[in-house]
Amino acid sequence: MKTDAVTTQNESSPGLYPNRVPQVTAGFWVIKLMAVTMGETAADYIAVNLGLGLTVTSIIMSTVLAGALLLQFSMKRYVPWAYWLAVVLISIVGTLVTDNLVDNLGVSLVTCTAVFTVLLALTFGAWFRQEGTLSIHTIISTRREAFYWITILFTFALGTAVGDLVSEQFGLGYLATGMLFGAIIISLSIGYFMIGLDSILAFWLVYIFTRPLGASFGDLLSQPVNYGGLGFGTIATSLIFLGVIIAVVMWMSVTGKDQEMISTQ
């Protein structure tokens, strides 16, 4: 299988295409963690605090997400504000998908975890069969980008199910659950940097586990004290993390350090 080379040469160079997703930098993981945390708290705020309920909230947010993804696909390149807008929205929708299955349809968290694990595995299998790679450094076509966003949706839905399963059904609580998944992510990072764990495998595992990590700490901050949280509320928690996201995205837009050009020659 041919390995695609990543370069930062000028876009006008022959055989170079803009990657449609960002480089994996420290800023990438900061925004990812903030986005998943905000996805949890924002979904709760819209559905519960505004009184719209899960069904109406899901319809509204899915419609907004569809518009954001159409915008993202039309760019045919990585544009920080458009890309991260889609990530924040898909985080909210992924949370709502799991919440609907559990709260509205009565599907158990164990079943949700199993189903989304299978769906994610099938998506990875179809992606690899069609493209020969699961690397996010080679998202240079509409088909690859479609696989990418479907994968992202399932990682958020799976992460929500796993986080709720551990913190609520297994009774670990929000803080212990966050610490557990934080330890898993640290272990994977050590495996990648020190033991030679495959970079693609490490990336996708960390991507999945940052969802329950962020959601756990989001719930810890926003939920009432009598439910095991710190009682800051969904509004304050969502606004804090939204502020961090906006600041880092603005920095990325100015510096352009997360842009990639892909050579297919």
UniProtKB/TrEMBL annotation:
Pfam families: DUF347 (PF03988). The lineage of its organism: Bacteria, Pseudomonadati, Pseudomonadota, Gammaproteobacteria, Oceanospirillales. The keyword Transmembrane applies. Keywords: Membrane, Transmembrane, Transmembrane helix. This is Putative membrane-anchored protein. It comes from Onishia taeanensis. It comes from the Bacteria. The keyword Transmembrane helix applies. InterPro entries: DUF347. The chain crosses the membrane at residues 46-71, 78-98, 104-125, 146-166, 172-193, 200-218, 230-252.
